[in-house]
From TrEMBL:
Highest taxon of source: Eukaryota
Source species of the chain: Tetrapisispora phaffii (strain ATCC 24235 / CBS 4417 / NBRC 1672 / NRRL Y-8282 / UCD 70-5) (Yeast)
Keywords: Cytoplasm, Hydrolase, Protein phosphatase
One Gene Ontology cellular component annotation held by this UniProt entry: cytoplasm
Family: Belongs to the low molecular weight phosphotyrosine protein phosphatase family.
Gene3D superfamilies: 3.40.50.2300
Protein name per UniProt: Phosphotyrosine protein phosphatase I domain-containing protein
Keyword Signal listed: no
Signal peptide as annotated in the record: none
Length: 159
């Protein structure tokens, strides 16, 4: 990306209450910590499904982020075809999300649709950010570690 153009990034999971709002919060926090906020136009997250529109993130995602001093401020929303014209990167958590995004992606999309795990330098973590919803808090903690690492790698590779 060129230095003079601001980047827009959207993170996507199924319901937009666990993984993608955590990825959004961690990415935004990492950008701020590295003094790169002026390089970004928009950072947000979506779900491929509309099950939770308007809801706050899962309390376990929020508590995991807060434990690491990462603020969370998001209400669930669903991604639409129009968003593929608004974001430079649409970054999803797993293969199912990727398939769903490719299914609704319009022909005139400007977005690079990718798995967040594509920025998994040296295969430090599983490239898939698994849904922790039906598991314990350990899954949320592992997701936090993954999205923190992927965020740092994205910034190192893309800026």
């Amino acid at each position: 990306m060129t230095q003079d153009r601001k980047i827009s990034v959207a993170f996507v999971c199924l319901g937009n209450i666990c993984r993608s709002p955590m990825a959004e919060a961690v990415f935004r926090h990492t950008v701020k910590q590295k003094g790169l906020s002026d390089r970004f136009e928009r950072i947000t997250s979506f779900g491929t499904a509309g099950y939770h529109i308007g809801e706050e993130p899962d309390s376990r995602s929020v508590s995991t982020c807060r434990k690491h001093k990462v603020p969370v401020d998001h209400l669930a929303q669903q991604i639409k075809p129009k968003h593929f014209k608004e974001f430079d990167y649409i970054i999803c958590m797993d293969d199912s999300n990727f398939s769903n995004l490719k299914r609704i992606e319009p022909e005139d999309s400007k977005s690079q649709v990718s798995l967040f795990g594509e920025w998994n330098t040296n295969n430090k973590y599983n490239r898939i950010v698994d849904d922790p919803y039906y598991g314990g808090i350990d899954g949320f903690e592992y997701n936090f570690e993954q999205v923190t690492y992927f965020s740092e790698q994205f910034l190192a590779q893309e800026l």
